Each structure stands twice: as structure tokens, then as C-alpha cells.
Amino acid sequence: MIYLQLAWEFMQIGLFAVGGGMATLPFLQRLGERTGWFDQQLITDMIAISESTPGPIGINMATFVGYNTAGVFGGIVATLAEILPSIIIVVLVSKSLARFSSSKYVTYAFYGLRPAVTGLIAAAVVSVFRTAVLDFDLYQQTGVLSDLISLKYILFFAIMLAGIRKFKKSPILYIAISAMAGILLKF
Amino acid sequence: MKELLEIYLLFFKMGSVTFGGGYSMLPILRREIVEKRAWLTEEQVMDFFAVSQTLPGLIASNVSVFIGYQRRKTPGAIAAALGVVTPSIIIITLIASLMQDFQNNPVVRHAFKGIAICVCALILDAVISMWKRGVKDWVGVLITVTVFTLAVFTQVSPVWLVLVSALAGVTVKRAGEGKT
After folding, report:
1. Structural domain boundaries in chain A
2. What is the pLDDT of residue B180?
3. Which of residues 157-176 of B touch A (CB under 8 A)?
């Protein structure tokens, strides 16, 4: 029963991903590796689409993965399952908000959680980098290791990163520019 | 019932005009909830955002549930949560179904290759900002590097890495407490 499995997996993601939509990324990657429901290529498409369409990125990613795993109903199940823990937890916390936010143990836990989430998302960058920036297609055709490193892609990556850090514009702008560059330069 | 529908529709609107992370909801939320409707004060909205970051789950759904609950208890919370996810479900389902038809088109492939590289840079940018904001001392550096290494080179579930790090945070801080 794929829907039950999806619901179970996404409920766990909703429960353990702390720190917003991007924090679900490492969980989604591991889910794909473990179940074989989708591959790394789908993950990069997922991020691109989720960033450049309306809707909070975490919710978009859940719908996208759910849809690609089990169709329209899969998208609905994954999304609702992911927000279910949030509904329960926030309702409980709402009842005693003042006590929760002044609890020193919450502050203490976050002292360890923030660096952990940083490390997890940094690891996600590594695996996205492998498929997005390194040229695995060419490497598989030729088997020559130097073909794996595409100067064109790495240069474009460096330019985009510099632009993002410097100008702090909306991600949609950078995604639009990159789509144009990809078409014009035949990436 | 009328108010629940109003909550649902308001958060439906939030979901359809948000781009990117849950944080990008803040300006619209302030305008709709604080200025137009006076449901909450500015400080309350900021508090909800702050606490939402410290709870499991997506920031967008956490904030929506907080505000919905504040208005109409649990039914309000559910209405807000359903409202904020509905636009995503509709839009992403449409795009994902269209994508299957266009996936083998070379122009689309070139565009997505460009986008994939950009996405990688966008996430790295997020990591750099998180590092600057959240990693403040050598304990933080140690946790970041350990989690990163384990996540890249082993198959350990992120669930364990998150749990153990939270525990480490509490342990280190409590030990520090004893000394002062």
C-alpha cells in the first residue's frame, strides 16, 4: 500500500525536519536512496520547481515528490502527512506558548540543532553538486575522469554563487537567468 | 463556519503568493493579519515566526497553525493549515504532470541543466547564511563538521543526527551551567 508508506515517511519528515523547508531536503534525498521511489535528478528538478513556483518551498517539495511517487493522490497524501505533526505540535504549544519559548532546555537544544541542520544541508549541497555541476553524462560515455569536471559548469556555478551572495535578489530571478543561460549555451 | 472559511481562504491566499521559504510569508502576513484585520499585534506575529523556527515541521505550516489556533482554536488551526497547502498541491500537481511530457525536449533539458546548477548555488548560499547565523563557537563547528561528514560518507538517518545533536546541545549547555 504505497499511500500508507508515503504517509508514514512524510509524517516522519514533518516531525524531524527542524528549521523550515530546506531542512526537509536531506530527508527527501535519503528517502529516495532508501526506497528507490525517485532519483537524484528528480531532486534537483524538485528544488528548481519548488523555488520558482508559488507556495512555500517545503510544501511544494512534498507535493512534487508525492506526485512523482504515486500520482495525484500521492501528492496530496505526502503533503498532508508532512504537515500533520506540525498541526498537532503547534496546537499543543499554543496552549502554553509562554512557558515553551522561555524554557531554557529549548534554547539549549537549539544550540546543538542549528549547527546540525547546517551540516545536513551542506551535505545535501554535495550530492546536488555531483549531479548538477559535475558532468556525469559525458563521463559515462567516455570513461575519462577529466570529463567529469566540466569547466563550463563550474564557472557558471561560481558566477551564480557570487551573484546570489552579492545582490540578494529573489531566487526566481536567478532561476530565470539560469534557464536562459542553459538554453543559449546548450548546457 | 463562516469564520473558518475566511481563515481557510486567507491562508489559501498566503500560500499562493509566497515564493521560496516560509519566511517570505512574513510581509504579506503582516499586512493581512496586523494591518487589514487587526487579528494580532505585530509582536505576536513576530513571536509566532520565532517559535515556528524552533519547532519541527515547515515554518509556513507552523505559523499558519499558530494564527488559525489563535482565532478559532483547533478547527481554526486545521483550516489555516489546509488553506496554506492547497495552492501548492494544485500548482505543483499541474506542473509535475506537464513536466513528464516535456522532459525529453532538448530545450527544456538545457534549461533545467542551467537551473540545476543555479539551485546548487542557491542551497550553498543558504548554508553560508546559516553557518554565519547559527554556528557561534567551537562546539557548533564540531557538530556541523561531524554531521556533515556522517551525512556525506555514511548511511546514518538524518533523524538520528538531529536527535543526537539536540541532546549534545543540552548536555554541553548544562555542563557549562554547573561551572558558573
Report:
1. 2-108
2. 58
3. 157-159, 161-163, 165-170, 172-174
